[in-house]
Amino acid sequence: ATKEADLEIPTAEAYHDEKMPALQKLAPWVVFSSLLFLVSYIPALYDVTKRGVFFDSPGYNDKNPVPITKPKSAKEDKNEKAELR
What we know:
This protein is mostly helical. It has helices spanning 21-24, 27-51, 53-56, 74-84; strands at residues 59-61, 64-68.
């Protein structure tokens, strides 16, 4: 019969308890994460609301991966031909 070995892990006591209020309170973490969220999403939200990128982008059909493009108006077609000349 074999006996299982006991696993002993040495532990040490702390010399002193350090007080770290930034790590013990939740409010600084919430403020920091909110600021980080705002900094990362403000440019995208600005593009959608002010520049109208969301409304000018072509749509997609779930059966076809090609973007749905609206047909050009006669005025747009005329302007495009004038630019090419």
